[in-house]
Amino acid sequence: MGDIIDIILGIAALCVVSFCFYSIVTQPELEICDMDQPMLVVNFDGWGENIDDTSETIFNYFVINYGNTEAKNVVVRCEVTNDNDITISQQLLNIGNVASNSYVYKTSTIKELFSDNDFGMCYVDSADGRFLNLEERINEDAN
Q: For the domain 39-142, what is the CATH code?
């Protein structure tokens, strides 16, 4: 009976150590100076032809605010580029406000259809006041 308890405790300890090691190793380092500002990023969910109106393309995305302050008048830019990374269409969309430590899910449309070789994406374009665009910050740190 004592051997079974030792085995169970050993497995539990191994799981805890493995989880802690995995958490430490996989966390990206991003130095944030001021949590008292909106920290925004767009998590693009997908895009495609609108089945209800085939002349439109739909963009689905989350606008996430990781900061401790509400982001006001957030504007998202959705764009489509071709094979040569040339922007062939873009649209600015006023999302409104995004509460602190929260997200909004949005669906936006562009009155155009694109080819299978084109690439669609959405980004944070602007917001009122001081805010941190996490995508720009991560791209800067990567270079």
A: 2.60.40.10
